Amino acid sequence: MLTDGRSTVALRGCFEDPLLNAMNFLNEVVREYPEAISFAPGRPPEQWFDIRAQIDGIASFVDASRAADGVSLDRAWARFGQYDRTNGIINDLLARHLRRDEGIFVSPASVMVTVGAQEAMAVVLAGLFVPGRDLLLVADPTYIGITALARILGISVVPVPSGPAGLDPDVLERTIVDASARGRVRALYLIPDFNNPLGVTMTREARERVLQLADLHDLLVIEDNAYGMYAYDEARLPTLKALDRACRVVYVGSFSKTLFPSLRVGYLVADQDVDGSARTLAQELSKVKSLLTVNTPALCQALTGAVLMRTGGSLEPVVCASREQCRRNRDVMLAALGEAFSWAAGRITWNRPAGGFFLTLTLPFTFTAADVATCARDHGVIVCPMQIFSLQGDRACEVRLSFSAVTEQEIVTGVERLAAFCRRACAGERFSCPPSASSSSRPISTRGAY
Ligand SMILES: Cc1ncc(COP(=O)(O)O)c(C=O)c1O
Prior knowledge:
Elements: E1 2-3, E2 6-7, H1 18-32, E3 37-38, H2 51-69, H3 73-80, H4 91-102, E4 111-114, H5 116-128, E5 134-140, H6 144-153, E6 156-163, E7 166-167, H7 169-180, E8 184-190, H8 204-216, E9 220-224, E10 249-254, E11 266-269, E12 273-274, E13 277-280, H9 281-292, H10 298-310, H11 316-340, E14 349-350, E15 358-362, H12 369-379, E16 381-382, E17 384-385, E18 398-402, H13 408-428
Parallel strand pairs: 3-16, 5-6, 5-8, 8-9, 9-10
Antiparallel strand pairs: 1-2, 4-11, 6-7, 10-11, 12-13, 14-15, 15-18, 17-18
Helix pairs in contact: 2-3, 2-10, 5-6, 5-9, 11-13
C-alpha cells in the first residue's frame, strides 16, 4: 500500500492479539507513572547482582579451557572469539548443576544452552509442532512468553484451567480427551514450582499423575522451572524432570533469576530418543537453534560457566542472599495484606506462595487493564491484572502481585495504597465478580484456544 508516496507494511493478524501487547502495556504504565510503586514486573532483586566480579570470571573460564585442551592462552582467547558449538560450551557444567541442585541426571549431550529460557521455548515450539495440526496445552493462566510465542508461530493453544494448587490432573485428562478430537495434542506446558503468574505449587501426587497422563496419551511435557531456586518454606518437591522415568519431559531452565536477566542464558534439557537418529532430541533440535541464534554468546556462557566452576556446580551460594531477600519480601507482603485488608476479611483473599516472586490477590470486583492506569494515577501503585495471562479471558477478579523487586517499605506503602483503591471500588459497587469466577470447577472451555 502507498500513503503520500511512502509504502506501508501490513502486519499479520496476530499483532492485534492483546497477548502480544501485554508486557508493553505494563511497561508503558510504569513509564507514565514513574512515582508509582510497582508490583508488576517479575524481576529479581538487583542489589544482589554481582556482575563485575562475574565478568572477571570469564578469564578463569578461558584459562580452564586452555588447560583442558593443552593450548596456549593466546590460542584459547582467539578461539573463544569464534563461532562455536550450536548447543553450547558449558553443557557439562550445566549437567553437573542439574545433578547437584535439581536431582536431574542427564548427559551433557541432552542439554542445549539457549539465549534465555525464551529461546528454549522457541526452539521447542518451532522444532516440534506442526502448525494447524498440533495442539499445545497450557496450564491457564500462564506465562505469556509461551502463549504469545505460539500465537506468532501459528500453533494452536488449548487452556487447561488451573485450580488452587495449579494444574489439576483430572481437568488435564478431560482436556486431553476433548482436544484430541480437534488435533494432535503434542505437548503440555506448565510451571509446577512457584508458578508465574499464580504463585502456586503443584503437589507431588499431581506431578506423578501428569507424567502418567503424558505417557498414556503420548505427549511431551514442557516443564519451565525459572523460579525453582527460590523456595522459601519446606523442602522442595522434585521437578517433573527428576521424576521422569519415561523421558516425557523437556525441561526449560534460566539464569535470569539466579544470576541476572540481561545475561540472557537459559537452557533446555531434551534427553529423548529420536526416531531414526542416534542423537538426542537436544542434538536434533540444534538445527533449529542454529537458525535462530547460531549459538549462545560465548562471553555469556563463560560468565555462567565460571560461576558454576567456582561453586562446584551449585547455585546455592549464589542465590541464597537474593532468595532470603525475596522470602522476607513475601512475608512482609503477607503481613501488609493482612493489616491493610482487615476491613475486607473473607471478601478479599490471597494465597501464600511457597517460593518464587508472585502471589494472587482475589477481589470481589473486576480488575481489568483499564483499572491499572486508574490505580497508578489515583493511588500510586501498579499491579498486574491476572486476566492478561488468561487464555479463557477469565480471572477478571484477580491480580498478580510481585514482591521480588521492591523494598520492604515500598511493599507496606504499596499495599496500603492498593487497599485504598479497593475500598473505593467496593464502596462504589461499580463492579462485582460472580463467586465462581476463579473456580476450577467451571466446565472446560476451549473458547480461548487459537
Ligand atoms: C515462567 C518463566 N519462564 C521463563 C521466563 C523467561 O526467562 P528468560 O529471561 O531466561 O528468557 C520467565 C521470565 O519472567 C518466566 O517467568
